[in-house]
Design goal:
By secondary structure, this protein is α+β, with helices and mostly antiparallel strands. The protein folds into two domains: 92 residues, D-amino Acid Aminotransferase, Chain A, domain 1, CATH 3.30.470.10; 150 residues, D-amino Acid Aminotransferase, subunit A, domain 2 (D-amino Acid Aminotransferase, Chain A, domain 2), CATH 3.20.10. It contains six helices and 15 strands. Strands 6, 7, 8, 9, 10, 11, 12, 13, 14 and 15 form a ten-stranded mixed beta sheet that branches. A five-stranded antiparallel beta sheet has the order 1-5-4-2-3. Helix 5 links the parallel strand 10 and strand 11. Helix 5 crosses helix 6. The radius of gyration is 18 Å and the shape is globular. 37% of the residues are buried.
């Protein structure tokens, strides 16, 4: 289903700045059955991104749009905000993406001050082209100090000697909803987790964290095999599944 300004029969004008200039903020959510996971956290992040992008963020209208979707099974849901319109899209979740190993390509990148990394925006054509031309699923960003910060569609989590490490929220990376849930999962599973810079190196395990992938192993970096994996990722996935079940079954979003 596609809703434009709350209407299923509406169209997005071709001259909308979200289309012509990439001037839009967005969120990607998923449902487990009929319930969206951590909806309010997604909406709060969308509001922050929209404020930075100077686009309206009518949260009450978005909530009504979401109700119109009448979700009954696992869905991927996108919310887009442009200077003049809001667009809500739902489609069946592609379960093949959940937890599937991915390949990444290194890209030197630090977000500019006029579009910081914590803003979830739609202006990402360069990243998509670079990943496709490298034969990778995503880019892995390398800062000027030789640290990996995040991927072009995901946060990062590495494991070394049983300790999980994820880059800190220093303003340069997206404050991921799945990243936060994975931190909660580590605490519940008794896994030591540190928020610290992540030097570009070999780790026992390396994961991409996102709403539609959940906790997905990074299998290849620049064509070379990454970490082989161990039990920490499995424990994190199990703990995350328990959090999701508890929050969605109880009605919490």
């Amino acid at each position: 289903m596609v809703l434009v300004d709350g209407h299923a029969d509406a169209q997005l004008p071709a001259d909308d700045a979200g289309f012509t200039r990439g001037l839009a903020a967005f969120e990607t959510l998923r449902s487990y059955g009929p319930r969206l996971f951590r909806l309010e956290a997604h909406l709060e992040r969308l509001a922050r991104s929209a404020a930075f992008m100077d686009v309206p963020c009518p949260l009450d209208k978005l909530r009504r749009d979401i109700v119109q979707l009448d979700i009954v099974d696992d869905q991927a849901v996108n919310l887009f905000l442009t200077p003049r319109h809001r667009v809500v899209i739902s489609r069946p979740l592609d379960h093949r993406r959940v937890g599937r190993a991915i390949a990444v390509a290194t890209a030197p990148f630090e977000p500019p001050p006029w579009l910081p990394g914590w803003v979830k925006h739609t202006s990402r054509a360069g990243w998509e082209l670079a990943a496709a031309r490298a034969g990778a699923d995503e880019l892995i960003f390398l800062d000027g100090r030789g640290h990996w910060t995040e991927c072009s569609r995901s946060n990062l989590l590495a494991v070394r000697d049983g300790v999980a490490i994820t880059p800190p929220l220093d303003g340069r990376i997206l404050p991921g909803i799945t990243r936060a849930a994975a931190i909660d999962a580590a605490r519940e599973a008794g896994i030591e987790l540190r928020e610290a810079p992540l030097p570009a190196a070999r780790y026992d395990e390396l994961y991409a964290l996102s709403t539609l992938k959940e906790i997905a192993p990074i299998e290849m970096i620049d064509g070379a095999r990454a970490g082989e994996g161990s039990d920490v990722g499995s424990a994190l996935r199990q703990a995350l599944a328990e959090i999701v079940a508890r929050e969605t079954q109880s009605g919490g979003q």
